[in-house]
UniProtKB/TrEMBL annotation:
<protein>
    <recommendedName>
        <fullName>Nuclease PIN</fullName>
    </recommendedName>
</protein>
<dbReference type="InterPro" id="IPR052912">
    <property type="entry name" value="UPF0111_domain"/>
</dbReference>
<dbReference type="InterPro" id="IPR038078">
    <property type="entry name" value="PhoU-like_sf"/>
</dbReference>
Length: 205
């Protein structure tokens, strides 16, 4: 059974928000990686990888919780979808960081910072939305903003790839493309989070 509006702030919402904060921490680590010398990056790898374990533990706690309570703030399948997509987003963030750490000699272009800024804005909007699942007007605005940011991220992705076409040897261009793709996959995962929120608005309002 679904809790009535006004009763949506629950442990499930808190756990979803906590997972979103783990994604934010991952983006912060990516920002640190981009801003430090390549030789100093490797110590952050364990911290980056550890985020996946923390987020998965939160996911398991969330699944246990929604199986054990009668009322949930959203349909259980929506809660599961949001949690799964947040964890998938973090997987892509970690993958991007892992690739950056592994390519010590790789110099990333300006588009990498631009893409990370867009991703960070998406994450902040998502964490705020997860904490306000009872506010459908806010969720609608969140959905709109995420769509716009995703379009912007796709443009940045194309610029990143085309900037490396003639500037690098083929193997270097491939390494750039792998990092760029991992970041874009994180962006697209957050768009799916917002799409799930959009379906909630349509069904529940």
């Amino acid at each position: 059974m679904i809790a009535r509006r006004g009763q949506r702030h629950s442990q499930a919402v808190e756990l979803l928000t906590d997972i979103g904060r783990e994604v934010r921490t991952g983006v912060n680590l990516l920002s640190q990686l981009l801003g430090m010398p390549a030789a100093d990056r490797r110590p952050l790898r364990d911290e980056l990888i550890g985020l996946e374990g923390t987020a998965m533990d939160l996911h398991f706690n969330l699944m246990t919780h929604i199986r054990s309570v009668f009322l949930t703030p959203l349909p259980r399948e929506d809660i599961y979808a949001l949690s799964r997509l947040l964890n998938r987003t973090l997987e892509h963030v970690v993958a991007a960081g892992d690739l950056i750490i592994a390519r010590e000699s790789l110099t990333l272009p300006r588009q990498s910072s631009d893409q990370l800024e867009t991703l960070g804005r998406q994450v902040d909007l998502t964490v705020d939305a997860l904490a306000r699942l009872d506010d459908f007007d806010h969720l609608e605005e969140y959905w709109i903003q995420i769509q716009r940011l995703t379009k912007q991220a796709n443009r940045t992705h194309r610029e990143w790839l085309t900037s490396s076409d003639s500037a690098f040897q083929p193997n270097i261009a491939l390494q750039q493309a792998q990092i760029a793709t991992a970041m874009l996959q994180a962006v697209e995962s957050l768009r799916k989070v917002s799409t799930t929120a959009g379906s909630i608005i349509v069904r529940e309002s």
